[in-house]
Amino acid sequence: MIRHFFLTLFALLGASLLNTAHATNASSVSYNALALTSSFPDEVSPSCKENFSKEQLEKAREIFLICPDAGVNAAKECSAHFADDIVYTDGSVVGRNRSEVELLFKNLLSEDLVEEWSLEVYREVCEDDLYVPFFMYNTTGWKFGELKTDPIENVPGVSFIKFNADFKVYDWRDFFGEGKLYEHVPLIGSLLAEKKRCLFSFLGDENEKQRCKDEVTQPIMAVLADGSEKTLPNEVSPSCSKYFTSEKLEAARDGVHCAENRQRLYSEESVYTDGLYSANNISEIDETLNNMCSTYIYGRNWTISAELCTKDGTYISRQFLNADPSFEGVSFVRVDENSKVFYRQDYLPELKIYERDAQIGSLLGRIVKGYVDCLTSDGGCETFSF
Ligand SMILES: *[C@@H]1O[C@H](CO)[C@@H](O)[C@H](O)[C@H]1NC(C)=O
Ligand SMILES: *[C@@H]1O[C@H](CO)[C@@H](O)[C@H](O)[C@H]1NC(C)=O
Ligand SMILES: *[C@@H]1O[C@H](CO)[C@@H](O)[C@H](O)[C@H]1NC(C)=O
Ligand SMILES: *[C@@H]1O[C@H](CO)[C@@H](O)[C@H](O)[C@H]1NC(C)=O
Ligand SMILES: *[C@@H]1O[C@H](CO)[C@@H](O)[C@H](O)[C@H]1NC(C)=O
Ligand SMILES: CC(=O)N[C@H]1CO[C@H](CO)[C@@H](O)[C@@H]1O
Predict the structure, then answer these.
(1) What is the residue with the minimal CA distance to atom 5 of ligand 6?
(2) Among 10, 46, 44, CA closest to 239
(3) Which UniProt keyword terms apply here (predicted)?
């Protein structure tokens, strides 16, 4: 689940990048030092209280804990909790049965590659057979061969984990703030961060704004005609019909796509973030969403594929950008009593989006492909190349 760090390492291996890395003394590194610390909220959320028994929640947490901790042995332990027909994906790599997913987890976090990381689950939502932990994580000492990254902090993520009647995982989808992670990848990182920053163009001075405008109108970012389409799920989910009025639900749904008159949907002090940058009031949000919504991938056709609502006004949607299931993202939205959105965080498929970019696309694509190849190979990622 934390493949992005590996990319950092792999990119570090790229010619002439050595100077950006802190080389370590390979012979002094202990390869058995994988250390994971994690924490969960002290209080069980209302939705998890209602939908999961105490034992089920404990088990769900345990699975979530040991699976990211995978390594060679934990991957086995973890796969004991998988259904035979489990499907796992993080949007790039896919495992379609238990043995494939076990291999993925084994390769993802082999002890050769990571020294230490910490993960904090700060919110949990449950509905029927679905467990949704929101988390942040840090890592230090991501290694590849003799190279090691700088620490990476506060990377946001969310997982959707589904259990069958035997309480085995049969469907697992991870989402990450990919931009935040890729910020740390040499070459790609700074370019990507710059592009993303352009969406938040109020952060820049006038020159930068102009440059962003030119950039934003580049091919992948081709400006669209106004308006976008929103495709809704066939049915309102149980939790959304229980906790949201239709007005509130409509506001949330409009809030997560490129609706016209977007400003009316957000309260004055709203915050919008993509996990890397944030827009902190209505005018900044408007500017950001205007940029976003005028781009080809972000703007065109958002198909909302799944929705969850909670008692406290939280709306969580999964959606296919441009109606394409391979561009899947998540929005976490809070709606107030007046049906105004006052917080929104997106987990966008940035790797996919920026693979279409003229400047960074092909390198990014090669890295992702190399990464997928090694994760799915019996030989693991030691031989990664791109
Ligand atoms: C690297 O490890 C070797 C063997 O343990 C040791 O002699 C050497 O001083 C180390 N070098 C550095 C830079 O730590
Ligand atoms: C898992 O799927 C792969 C590819 O479809 C297949 O080759 C393999 O035999 C499957 N393994 C099991 C245990 O079903
Ligand atoms: C990650 O690092 C930040 C900054 O040092 C710290 O505030 C936070 O508690 C850390 N998170 C975890 C999960 O350790
Ligand atoms: C929004 O925030 C920015 C930066 O904090 C500030 O300059 C601007 O005046 C604010 N706009 C409104 C409408 O509050
Ligand atoms: C949006 O996506 C839906 C679902 O794939 C499709 O039926 C609809 O025609 C699309 N609309 C546009 C304008 O592409
Ligand atoms: C299976 C189960 O217990 N489902 C419940 C989950 O929580 C919602 C919201 O309270 C209930 O409506 C479901 O019955």
Answers:
(1) 51
(2) 46
(3) Signal
Which residues lie closer than 8 Å to 189 by C-beta, 6 or more apart?
8, 11, 182, 183
Name the residue of 120, 138, 150, 152 whose CB sits within 8 Å of the most ligand 3 atoms, as the mutation to test its pocket. 138
Q: 42-70: per-residue pLDDT in tens?
A: 999 999 999 999 999 999 998 887 777 65
pLDDT tens per residue across span 157-178? 999 999 999 999 999 999 988 8
Name the phi and psi angles at 383, rounded to 5: -105, 20
Asked if 297 contacts 222 with a C-beta cutoff of 8 angstroms, the reply is no
CATH number of the structural domain spanning residue 139: 3.10.450.50
Asked whether the predicted pLDDT for residue 15 surpasses 60, the reply is no
For ligand 3, the distance from its centroid to the CA atom of residue 340, given in whole angstroms, is 31
**Ligand 3, residues at Cβ distance < 6 Å:** 118-120, 136-138, 153-154
Closest ligand relative to 82 C-alpha = 2
Q: Which residue lies with its CA nearest to atom 2 of ligand 5?
A: 323
| Locus of tokens 């299931």 | 325
pLDDT of residue 284: 95
Distance from Cα 242 to the centre of ligand 3, integer Å: 35
Structure tokens that stand for 155 in this block: 């990377």
Say if 17 falls within a structural domain. Answer: no
**In this structure, are 94 and 169 located in the same domain?**
yes
Find out whether the beta carbon of 99 lies less than 6 Å from any atom of ligand 2. yes
* Domain with 260 in it: 221-353
Task: For the chain, give the percent of residues with pLDDT over 90.
Answer: 42
